[in-house]
Design goal:
The chain has 120 residues and is mostly helical. It is built from six helices and no strands. 2% of the residues are buried. Keywords: Membrane, Transmembrane, Transmembrane helix.
Length: 120
């Protein structure tokens, strides 16, 4: 509810002018939209359905199952929304392909055969 209040306050007070939207501002808008969408369209209905279905099991047993389904898909949807951001996607790809380890190994100097003979 607090998020909705802040969103309405920003909109009606004119704190964000649409004529001065930059690329960074668009990223920020998408960030808050993703939070709003996940919370209000997935998590909140899932919890309401789960509570209603759980409190009246004999009458609304299927609502509890649907509510748990909503709560179960919420991390998947959140992950997909997070992958929409370019920097998060690049960092995730670098992490999964272990590119940080490969870069660290490539940047360390290796001893040549001549250096090994001199050391011995």
């Amino acid at each position: 509810m607090y998020f909705c209040y802040v969103w309405i306050t920003i909109w009606y007070q004119g704190y964000m002018k649409l004529s001065s939207v930059t690329a960074g501002m668009k990223e920020l808008i998408w960030y808050f939209f993703r939070i709003f969408a996940v919370f209000n369209l997935i998590w909140l209905p899932g919890m309401v359905l789960g509570v209603i279905g759980g409190s009246h099991v004999w009458k609304y047993a299927n609502l509890a199952k649907v509510g748990l389904l909503f709560c179960g898909i919420q991390p998947i949807i959140s992950f997909c929304f997070a992958m929409m951001k370019l920097d998060v996607r690049n960092y995730t790809i670098n992490l999964l392909t272990l590119s940080y380890i490969r870069k660290a190994q490539e940047s360390t100097p290796t001893a040549t055969d001549d250096e090994l003979e001199i050391a011995c």
